[in-house]
Design brief:
Layout: H1 6-20, E1 22-24, E2 29-33, E3 36-40, H2 46-62, H3 66-73, E4 76-81, E5 88-91, E6 94-98, H4 105-118, H5 123-131, E7 135-136, H6 138-147, E8 175-176, H7 190-203, H8 211-219, E9 225-229, E10 233-236, H9 237-244, H10 255-267
Bound molecules: zinc ion.
């Protein structure tokens, strides 16, 4: 943040606080150094506050407005942190965004979805798992590892085609997803499934900043095996289409879309 942007940034912070009960932890401002004040830029940019606001506004809109958003998430403190290679992380009433990796609106929505789920004791993701016909059984996953139909290495996911752990149960959690998620990898579990499903629902064919990414997540399965996708790299896309590509490429025909659509309506009233 630059000194001249401070007034606009402060107004934005007040608005987020008052409308959505979102508190951004300020890491910029004047610091006293001896007799002179020096400006600390912090890590936030004004454009990032605007992007954050746009993402919150999009999610609130789907939930029936700012009041509903504030109530459903129960207030959220958003902070920039050093969180290694991850873009974000979330818990009840808290979202951390990476101070190193630039964030997208998709990341913000994904993390806010975790905060929503966490504010309801993670029961929303449990309900999604059930609705979509999935289950979490680590012991069954181990058995699967020994008997084949396993698309990861012996120790877990590997960063190469056909080894990233995309098949049901082939992940660290032993999560056997039901129906068709938009993707899966070694870190997939019901909580990640829920957060991605919220972002997919908000973006799917809505003509908003999430929509191109939502399309890309589905369109990759139209590629032949071994093809390079500009966002997702090389994989055996055609083999995975059976698990992830919805009927006629229409994501609204999935159980996840149905579930999140119903949930948004439920939490809007
Ligand atoms: Zn996540």
């Amino acid at each position: 943040m630059r000194p001249l942007e401070d007034t606009i940034a402060s107004a934005k912070l007040s608005q987020l606080r008052e409308d959505y009960r979102v508190e951004v932890v300020v890491d910029w401002g004047y610091e006293h150094a001896g007799n002179a004040d020096s400006w600390n830029c912090g890590t936030w940019r004004l454009s990032e506050l605007e992007k954050l606001h746009a993402a919150i506004n999009l999610m609130a809109g789907a939930m029936g407005g700012a009041d509903r958003f504030a109530q459903n998430l129960g207030g959220v403190t958003i902070k920039k942190s050093n969180i290694g290679l991850r873009g974000g992380e979330a818990a009840k009433n808290h979202v951390n965004l990476s101070e190193k990796i630039p964030f997208s609106m998709w990341t913000v929505i994904h993390e806010l979805a975790h905060a929503w789920d966490a504010n309801h004791s993670w029961k929303l993701s449990l309900a999604l798992e059930k609705y979509t016909g999935g289950y979490t059984r680590p012991i069954l996953a181990k058995a699967k590892r020994l008997t084949g139909n396993w698309d990861a290495g012996p120790l877990g996911g590997e960063n190469r085609p056909g080894k990233r752990g995309r098949l049901p149960g082939c992940n660290a959690a032993g999560y056997f997803y039901g129906d068709k998620p938009s993707g899966s990898n070694w870190r997939f579990n019901r909580k990640e499934d829920f957060a991605e499903s919220v972002a997919m629902h908000l973006g799917w064919k809505k003509g908003n900043p999430l929509s191109a990414w939502a399309d890309a997540r589905i369109d990759r399965y139209l590629l032949p095996n071994g093809a390079r996708d500009e966002n997702f790299g090389v994989d055996n896309w055609a083999d995975y289409a059976a698990y992830f590509y919805p009927p006629n490429g229409d994501y609204t025909k999935t159980k996840r879309w149905e579930f999140i659509d119903g949930l948004m309506r439920e939490y809007a009233t």
